[in-house]
Amino acid sequence: MVHLGIARAPNKSTLSYASQHRPAKLYEDLFHTALKRFRDE
């Protein structure tokens, strides 16, 4: 994970909590942004 600039992986419980508290709209927007980018290429 050093290539991501993270010295140590976060705990699973931290990632789980973060995932539960992020709005679904965030992932929907990310998906559509990536889809548009790959369609354009």
Major sheet description: none
Helix content: 55-70%
Mean pLDDT: 87
Poorly predicted ranges: none
Overall spatial form: flat
SSE order in H/E notation?
Answer: HH
Structural class: mainly alpha
First-to-last CA distance: 28 Å
Strand count: 0
Quaternary structure state of the chains depicted? single chain
Which band does the percent of strand residues land in?
Answer: under 5%
User: Nearest-angstrom radius of gyration?
Assistant: 14 Å
Count of alpha and pi helical runs: 2
How would you describe the overall organization of this protein?
- The longest helix has 17 residues, at 24-40.
- It is built from two helices and no strands.
- It has helices at 12-20, 24-40.
- The relative contact order is 0.09.
- The protein has 41 residues and is mainly alpha-helical.
Summarize the structure.
It contains 2 helices and no strands.
Q: Helices and strands in order, then pairings?
A:
Layout: H1 12-20, H2 24-40
Describe the structure using short key phrases:
41 residues, flat
